[in-house]
Amino acid sequence: MILVAGSANLDFVVRASHIPAAGETVLGYDFQTYSGGKGANQAVACARAGNAATSMLLALGEDAFAAPIEASLSNAGVRTYIVRTRDRSTGTAFICVSAVAENAITVAPGANEILDASHLPPLHGYTHLLLQLEIPLQTVIAYARAAKMQGLTVVLNAAPAQSLPLDLLAAVDVLIVNEVELTAISGRDGDIAHRLERIDVPCVIVTLGARGCWARLAGELMMQQGFPVTPVDTTGAGDTFCGVLTAALSKGLPMAEALRMANAAGALACTRPGAQSSIPTHAELQEFMLA
Ligand code: ADP
User: Fold this and answer.
1) Is 61 a pocket residue for ligand 1 (Cβ < 6 Å)?
2) Cys-Cys crosslink for 91: which of 81, 112, 117, 199, Cβ 3.0 to 4.6 Å?
3) Which residues does substrate bind (predicted)?
4) Is 191 tagged catalytic?
5) What is the tens place of the pLDDT at every residue in 102-127?
6) Over 80: is that where the pLDDT of 101 sits?
C-alpha cells in the first residue's frame, strides 16, 4: 500500500495569443481549472494507471478551491488524510499558455507550506512512501526518515530541481529525477552514467523525455527506450512516470518491468492535454503495452 505525501494545487489555465509582458493586459481565449500539484498528480497516477491501493496526505485551505481537488483524488480512488487551515488558501497555480504552447506559471503554494512532521499519519500497513519537493524540505526529510525507520521503501521525485541535503539522500531508496534535476544534484561533469553513480542512493532513475529512462541499481545500469508517440502536451508525463513506477514496485515487479510500465504510462500521458486528466487508466496502459 502506497502513501503519497505532498502538494495539491488548483491550476487556473487561460489560453492567449501570447504571454503578457510586465504591465501588459492580454485578452485571452478559453479558461479552465484543473486539479494539479505534483503530489496529487502522482497519487492519481499510482491509483488510476498503476491500479495500486493509494492514500495521500495533503493540506488544503478552507475555501472554494479545495473541493475540486478532493473530488479529483476521490474519483481516482485515492484515500486522503487532509490537514485543513483557515490561515492559508488552497495551493493554486496561474498558467498562461500562448498560441505556440509556451507557458508562464505563477504558483501560490498556500496550504502546501503548512505540512509539518506532526501531520504524518501512522505508517502501519504502508509499504511505500512517495515524496516530491513541493512541500517544505524539512517536512520531506522528517517524513522520509520516519518511513525509513519503519521499514517502508522511500521513493523521492526530487522536483522541482534543487540540490539535496545528505540527510535526505540517506533516507531515500529510489530517487527519480529528470535531466535538469540530475544536474542540480550531481553537477554537469561527466556523462549520465557517471552522474548517476555519484549519487549515494541505492537506486537512481533519470527520465529522458522521448528517449525513455535510465536507472542505476546496485551498480548495474539499465536503459529503457521511450515508447514512440505523437506528443500533444507533455505536462504530467513525469508525474505519471513516478506514480506508475511506485505502483509497479509496490506490487513486487522487477525494476526492469516497472521502468517499462512507467515509460509506457509517461508516453501515453503525452498524447492527451492536462496533467491529471492525461493520466491513463490501468486498462488503457495494459492495452498500449501489448500493442
Ligand atoms: P519531466 O516531464 O519531469 O521533465 P520527462 O520529460 O523526462 O520528465 O518525461 C518523463 C517520462 O515521460 C519519460 O521518461 C518518458 O517515459 C515519458 N515521455 C516524456 N516525453 C515523451 C515523449 N515525447 N515521447 C514518449 N515518452 C515521453
Assistant:
1) no
2) 112
3) 9-11, 37-41, 134, 239
4) no
5) 888 899 999 999 999 999 999 999 99
6) no
CB 199 within 8 A of CB 193: no
* Per-residue burial over 26-55, b = 16 or more CB atoms within 10 Å of its CB, e = otherwise: eeeeeeeebbbbbbbbbbbbbbbbbbbbbb
Contact by Cβ (8 Å): 55, 4: yes
Q: Is the dihedral of CA 110, 116, 122, 125 positive or negative?
A: positive
Number of H helices and number of E strands within the chain? 9, 13
pLDDT at position 204 over 80: yes
Instruction: Answer yes or no: is the C-beta of 223 below 6 A from any ligand 1 atom.
Output: no
Angle at 185 between CA 184 and CA 188, to 5 degrees: 65
In the CATH scheme, what is the homologous superfamily, with its name and number, of domain 2-6+38-87+116-290? Ribokinase (3.40.1190.20)
CA diameter of the chain: 54
pLDDT of 37 strictly over 80: yes
Which atom of ligand 1 is least distant from the CA of 180? 4
* Residue 157, strand partner residues: 176
The torsion angle over the Cα atoms of residues 149, 198, 175 and 58, rounded to 10 degrees, is: 70
Cα–Cα–Cα angle for 182, 186, 187, rounded to 5 degrees: 95
pLDDT of residue 142: 98
Measured CA to CA, the distance from residue 43 to residue 150 in angstroms comes to 21
Residue range 59-70, pLDDT digits in tens: 999 999 999 999
Q: Say if ligand 1 is within 6 A of residue 243 CB.
A: no
Type of residue at 44: V
Give me the pLDDT at residue 178, please: 95
**pLDDT tens digits, residue range 216-226?**
998 899 999 99
Write out the E strands in the chain: 2-5, 9-15, 31-36, 54-61, 79-85, 91-97, 103-108, 128-131, 153-157, 174-178, 203-207, 213-217, 220-224
